[in-house]
Design goal:
Strand order of the largest sheet: 1-2-4-3
Structural class: alpha+beta
Distance between the termini: 49 Å
Shape: globular
Number of domains: 1
Strand content: 5-15%
Order of helices and strands: HHEHHEHHEHEH
Largest sheet: 4 strands, mixed
Length: 193
């Protein structure tokens, strides 16, 4: 096989992997996305599986579940088919959602916490990247229900205060994730049994 055919085969292989990792955007959203009503429409465009996530995004979810890096390789394959959505949203759009959330919580924080740190960008539609960002920024973990983040508030405020135009978000089908985690923890011969 000459070099030109070899390069062509490699491109097809990469394209097939990307197609496998990303599903068509125009399809009906999966049922698990209903757990994220605030960002459901945006999350649909980034829906994929845990296997397709870059390592720095996987690490955020694994740390949240208490899995240390020594167990990372075993756990990562256990969660391969868990549905996730990894997207970047415009900072202004996300800041407005956070401001609405804080304001509806009745704690009087609306405008005082988020508003002071917001940049004067024009409001734009959510941005769903075609590929993952070149700079590895740990995503903010979304919490199911009508909440915003699980434990990523400081990460959100750090990205916002330094003027990032977009903020990475990670939504996970936590029911599936925790079901597989229980299987991992209680299987004879597993790393945690």
């Amino acid at each position: 096989m000459n070099l030109r055919e070899n390069i062509k085969t490699e491109r097809v292989s990469r394209t097939d992997r990307l197609t496998e990792a990303r599903r068509p955007v125009g399809r009906v959203p999966s049922a698990w996305l209903a757990c994220y009503p605030i960002f459901q429409d945006a999350l649909r465009s980034g829906e994929t599986t845990f296997r397709a996530l870059p390592d720095y995004a996987k690490a955020v979810a694994l740390r949240r579940s208490g899995i240390d890096m020594a167990e990372h390789a075993v756990a990562s394959t256990t969660f391969d088919e868990v549905p996730v959505s990894f997207i970047e949203l415009c900072t202004q759009f996300l800041s407005e959602a956070v401001e609405d959330y804080l304001g509806s919580a009745g704690n009087g924080a609306k405008g005082s916490v988020v508003g002071s740190a917001m940049s004067p960008q024009s409001r734009s539609e959510p941005i769903a990247p075609v590929s993952y960002p070149l700079i590895a920024r740990p995503p903010c973990l979304l919490r199911p229900g009508r909440h915003i983040f699980i434990d990523s508030w400081m990460r959100f405020f750090a990205y916002q205060s330094r003027g990032d135009l977009t903020i990475p978000l990670l939504a996970i089908d936590w029911l599936d994730f925790h079901g597989r985690l229980e299987g991992l923890l209680f299987v004879p011969g597993s790393c945690r049994h």
